[in-house]
Structures are given as C-alpha cells and as structure tokens.
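Predict the assembly for these two chains.
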Amino acid sequence: MLTYITRRLLFLPIVLIGVTLLIFFAMSFLTPAQLVSAYIKSPEELKNQSIQELVGRYGLDQPVWKRYFSWMKNVLKGDLGYSVSANMYVTEAIAKRFPATLELALFAVIPVICGGIWLGTISAKNHNRPLDHASRIFAIVGWSLPDFVFGLIILLIFYGLLSWFPPGRLSVWADSVVLSGSFVQYTGMNTVDALLNGRFDIFLDALRHLVAPTITLAYLWWAYILRITRSSMLDILGKDYVRTARAKGLTEKLVINRHVRRNALIPVVTVVGGMVLGLLGGVVIVETVFDYKGIGLLIAKGAERMDYTLILGTSLFYGVLLVMTNLIVDILYAVIDPRVRLE
Amino acid sequence: MNAKMRTLLVLLLVVAVGAGVYAYFRSRDQGETTDEGRAPATDPNTFVYVTIGEPDTLDPAYAYDTASGEIIHQLYDTLFDYNGSSLEELVPRLAAQVPSIENGLISEDGRTIKVPIRKSVKFHNGSDLTPEDVEYTFERAMISDPVGSPIWMFFEPLLGVQTMEQVIALAGGPSDYAGINEVDPAIRRKAFDMIDAAVEVEGDAVVFNLAAPYPPFLQILAKGGSWSSILDKEWMIANGDWDGNPDTWAKWHDPAKEEMTLYEKANGTGPFRLQAWDRSGGQIVLKRFDDYYRGAAKLETVFVKYIEEYNTRLLMLQSGDADAIYADVQYLDQLKGIDGVKAVEGLQQIANTTLLYNFTIPYEGNEDIVGSGKLDGNGIPSDFFADINVRRAFNYAFDYERYLNEVANGAGSIAKGFIPAALPFSNKDGEWFTHDLEQAEQFFRQAFDGELWDKGFKLTLLYNSGNNSRKTAAEILEFNIESINPKFQIDVQGMQWPTYLSKLDQGSLPVFFMGWLMDFPDAHNFVDAYLRSTGAFAGYCGEGLVELAKAEFDGLIAQAMRAQTTDERAALYQEINRKAFEFAVSMPYIEPSDHRVMRAWVQGFAHNPAYSANYDFYSLTKNAAGS
C-alpha cells in the first residue's frame, strides 16, 4: 500500500503542472485589456488610470509563456501572487477562507452521508412500497430544488420568522470577542477555536450559525446518496450469498447490516469522495445566501472578475486536494472490501 | 443502520435542537443583554451597517473608491469640514481657522495659503498633532503618487501638473521613464525640492504655495474624499514608511497597494479607531476613540459588514440585526413597507451620467459594431459622430423624463449640462437639450448634407452586461431614433465587462456610458473630466474630440481656474456651458439622487453630498424611542 501511495503522490506535480498549463493556455485567448478587467470593476474606475498603464504595470502585455515561467518561479518560492478580487495574497486568502468551508463541510458531511445511506437503506428494504416512494419523493424534491431557492426558504423560516439561525458565521457579540485580540484563532474554525479558548458560548453561537447551511446542504445531497445506496443495495439483495445468509436463519437486521449494506457501500464511497471534494470546493450559493464566507464565494468572485492569479492559486490548491481525496477513497475501498488490494 | 450510527444521528439532532432552543431564548433575551463583551445589534452602543463592496485600501494616499472613503472618513480628520450640508461654507477641524483673503491667511494673488494648526489634538496612539504631521501627510502623498490614486488633486494646484512623471520633467528629467530609479538622483532631489517647497511649516501653521490660484483648493483639503486625511509622521516612520529623507523617497514611490503602510492599519485623529479589518469574514470593526478632540462619539462600536446578497441584508434589517443597509433604488418601496424601517430619499448627490460619443471610430476589427464602416445604410462611417448634426439629433432624441421616472424611479433630476445643478456656475438657466423628436429629425436631415437621411445607418450600441439602467437608456434611444426614420437601425447589445473594457481601450465603442462622481464640489472637476482634451474620458472619444476640446474648451477651462473674482469665473463657465450646448459634445442625461435605509431607531443622520461616506457615524445614535 505504501508503494501505491508514494506512486500516487509522485503524480501530484504532474497533475498540478497540467492544470496550470491548461489555465494559462485558456488565458492566452484573452487580450491584455480583457485581463485588466480584474483590476477595474466598472467604467467609472477609469477615472484616473488608463488601461494601457495598468497593462504595463501588471505585465499583461508579456507573452503568455513568459508570464507562466515568471508565475511558476514565484510559486516555487511559495508566492502564489496577489488577488485583486480578494484584496489579499492568494495564500492568505486560502488560509483565511478554507477553514470556514472545511468547518461547514465537516458539519454537513455526517448528516449528509448518514441521512443519505439511511434513506437509501429504507428505500431498498421497502422496495416499491409506500415508504420507498415517500423517501424517494422526499429526496428527489431536495435534489430538484434550486439550492438558491431552498436556501432562501430555510433562511426565511429559521431566521426571518423564528430568529433561530442567523446568517454569517458568528453573531455581532461573538464577533466582538473573536476580533478583540484576546481570542486566539488557532484554526480559523470557530467551533474548534471557541472550545480551545474555553468559550462555550461562542461554540454554541458558531454552531447555531452552522445549522441552516447544514440543513440546506444535507437536504440537497440526500437524494444523490439515497439513489446510489438504494440501487446498490437492491443489486446486492439479489445475490446468492444474501439468499444463503437468509437460508442460514440470520435475522433480517443482520443480513442487511452485515451482508448487504457493507458491500453496497463501495459505489457510495466513490460518490461521497466526490461530494466531499465538492463541499471542500465551496458551495457558492449556500455561502452566498447564508453569508457564510468560505472559499466557494472567494473563487466565484475571482472567476467573475477574471482574477487569474486567484484562479491559478486555488486550482493548485484543489489539485492537491483532488489527488489526496482520491487517494483516501482508494484506501477506503481496501478497508471496506478486503478483495481490493492496492498495488 | 447500526446502533452506533443511529446514536450519532440522535446526538446530532439533539445538538441542533439544543442550538435552536438556545438561539430562541437568546434572541428573546437579546434586548436586555448588555453584559460586557456582548453587544447585540439592538444594543444602543453598537451600530451595524450592512453594505456591499469592501474597501480597496485604508491608505488615504491610495484610496479613491467610496467603500474605502466610508471607513477612512471615520478614522481620520482633515483640516476643514463642510458646515452641515453646505458645499461652500467650510469650518475648521484640524486647522484652527479657515483661511481667507479677509483674515489674511490667503495672499492677495491667491497663491499662498496659510493654515494654522489646532493644538491639543491627539492621534489614536496618544501622540499629539503637529504642523509637521500635516506637512508630512501631503509630501508623503505626492512622493508616493500611486497609479490611479487621487494625488493629482495635490499636484495640480501645488505644482501645476498631474503626476510625478510630470514633476520629474519639470525638474529637467525625462518625461517618460520605466521606473523612478532610472531617473538621475540629482533630478529626483530637485523634484523633491519642488514638492518640499509647495508645503512648508511656519511656526504653528502650514503654508501651501500654489503654482497658480486654484479656487477649489480648500475644498480638496476638506473632509470630502479621503486623500487629505492627516497622518502621524512619527508613527508612520516607526511603521516603516518614508522617513522624510529627500534623497530616499524613490523607495516609497508608486508602491503596490498591499505594500503600503496604511493598507490595513490606521492611526488617525478621527472619532473612531480601527479595531479589526476581518477580511475573511468581510467586516470592519471600529471602536470609539475616547480622546477625540470634539468629544467622544455616542456609539461605542461600529460594525461595517459586507454582504453581497440583498435578501440576506433585508432579513438582517428586518430582524434588527442590522441598523442600516445598502439597498438599490428599486427596493425602496418594499423597504418602506417594513415596520420600524425608514428610508431617507432624495439625498443630493453631485454626480451625473453621460452618453459619450466617439468622434473617430476605427473600422479595422470593429466590423461587428460599425457594420460596413460606410454611410450606406449598413453601418456607420468613422466620422459619424464628428458630424455635429448627428450629435445634436441624438441629444434631442433621448427621452429624459421617461428615463428619470421609469428607470431611475424619480430619484434625481435631468441633467442640464456637464456641471451639476447643485454646484455654482451650472447651466441651470441656460439652454439645453430636451426630448424633441422634431428637432432630432431636423438635425438628422442636415447630417452629412442629407445623405444620412436618405441612406440611413446601422449602429450597435453596447453597454456592459448587468447594468440594467444603462441598457434601458440605450433602448430608449433606440426606440426614439428608429421611430424617426425606418432606415435608422440601432441594435442594443450587452457585452461582458472584460470585452467591453477591451473595446473601450481600443477606442472602438462609437457611443458609451460613463458616470462622474465629484472629487470636490467645484465646476472645474466636471468640465475638466468631460470637456478638456486631457480629460478622463477624452482618450476614448477619438482624436476628433481631442482636437475640438483643444480648440474650444482647454483655454476657457484654464482661464476659469485663474480667474481672480467669482464674477469672472461665472462668466467663463457660462461660456463653457454655452459652447458645450453648441457643440453637443456628449449627452449628460441624469443627475442621480441618493437614499439611505435604516431602522427607525437610528437618529442623528446627517448628509453632505461632498462626503464619500454614506454615514458619518460620529453623528449617529440609537434611540429605542425612535422605533
């Protein structure tokens, strides 16, 4: 397994160079004046600066290969450049925004997976019965609902009407404490930092702000996990060894839990790997609606403004994340299914 | 599902319900919670303003955007301020007196202005304000001169130029160079000496030596934009900024925004100090400065939060978590219907929006916009807008009233010239274009000696996608012009901002929209931008406009600035207004007004259109009775 992991990690630089070359290649189709739009947001900002002046200042008139090598040189020195849309260095932007996304993903991933698998199991167990139909309809409605609409409904109910779960990551009073200088931000994840600082009130407040986006994300993803679990379980339920297990007189609970679900989880793990990566990539709409300033919002804003420095930097970051997630998924295969050997 | 998984789910559910219950009771108790460290939005000492667009920088020498100005306004003070909502009457702030010829602080020739500096004013770090701080502020701004910054406003009155490059040229150096370090150190020293001589300390006062009389100079120094905010010299040096050395200033010239000392730090004399700029959370926290020389502000803490999504801002205002929010004009009716929310409308804004014409439109690579490039009914020739009759016809064809009422929701007034009506020397009583299709037809018939009327034209009118008010303005023009002659065809198209910008850069857009928000409340700021050959937009309007501006406007604009008396200035601006109408240089169509939306408990709101800040937090209080 160690050889397998090493070999996969050795592929990492090649993947990253490929990603950056692709982005630079796409950029070569843009004129310097188009690239300068990252620095000027509207016609009014041309007040006291000329487009050509900015092109020269940021070296946008240089050939694309020259820009690539100069960028790569800086990357090797650990400098991913300055992002105009984030108004900070790319490394700083990732370091500041990723913990929020990670925190949301960590809180969302358990209800999403558990809920999805549970619903899928219920559906499969009650194949073509009312419970199957009901759980499928429930989940498919979630899958079909635009996340923007569902997010707004949740915000309207739980914040607008009930005042339970407000948008943002913390309340004003908690922000006052966190930004006062006496509160140490160890990880950037408010729940973890609050516990490390011994502030249970801030922990609860951070938790309170996580509930609404988590509900939204969970509901939107359940249908997907449900479908995969259900079809995979139905497939396994028809296998000979399941019939044998039943013939041996095992209880239905034992058959499902030990013989069916475990084997049905392999395709689910693949899907979950992609889903986790998607969650870590940021969930733009959910972050927008709930003012949850994570990395998704950052990237979306960067793309909108053609902030290529940010796009390149975050692509590198996600390249690493992608390779690592796939590696973990491969290892999980081996854990779930002893027949799988990583060589 | 196994037992472990079920337990986990139950646990999660319990936590969620617990958080909900906690939240419920917390929100119920919020009004009474005032314990230390906890400042809910309904706390009378904490103000929460939720808006869009974070500041570019907190450095006054760089900041030129309203979002930066909003924060800098609260952190710093300037030498003068406007008296209430007046745009002309100044009151002293860090200055001890407002200079005038009558009190002898302005010389008879208007070129020397002496400003006595107030004593016993403290910076946020506790140090005292001195005249040397004031001198340092202006000299540091000029030696920095970052590209695209507002520092031209110091160069123009003090040295008669607009950039450091021009100062170097004045000092005998090259007029064009790749980097300041390429310039001979002796020339650099000479350039610095010129800057140094422009701002001098004289006892307890600072003396500004102007290159020529510059009537709006005191307004440039007043609390409008952020550029004239006074810095603490010692603190700046201690934080690694320029040390005042005349030979090393080049190191601090044209720095990258993020490398400037004050990019995210501040030490001003203003009523609030910067507690944090939380860029990951998109918010700025300001704390009351208790030693503020005009008395401490009533609010203790101000949160400025940046949330792009309108619905989230709306719900925060509705729930009372926000005391004020930014909202576009189209949402005003909805907001006014919310209990406990007030909208302040019709706030004066010194700005205008204009449709500009390109006098020399290129054909190569521009076929998608100009069609055949000929006067044959399938396109427009390069000199289409160089014909004065076409410009006049366009100006008469626009339905100004309809735009104001249907697009701008009545928020503003119809522009009658380039100088906004609220400023002295505007064209309020002069002749200007109105919606008159008969006149438009008459001028179209005269254009190109009647050839245009017979053959027609086809033109693509572009706007940057997403800007719906400009889209509708273009469609109003399209509808009216096409109704005059069926051979006239206008195609309104949205274009993505990067491509639009690229076209603008190439001078390819035959017509385009631009807005101008004043830097300082003076007619010069507007005529310079729109009518001078070196104006902000001249480069995008083709050589034809530059030539016209040189011949007809440049001389008058310069004379108006040198004029010794108000009457003389008035006469010159009247002539500029008349010529602007005669030549129909472009089409200013609206002077928009502004509005604010806040909870009814917010008291003390004051507005001055010269401020770049939407709120002067110093004047605000929260009074539950107001709700």
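Chain B touches chain A through 75 residues (CB under 8 Å). Residues 3-29 of chain B form the longest helix (27 residues).
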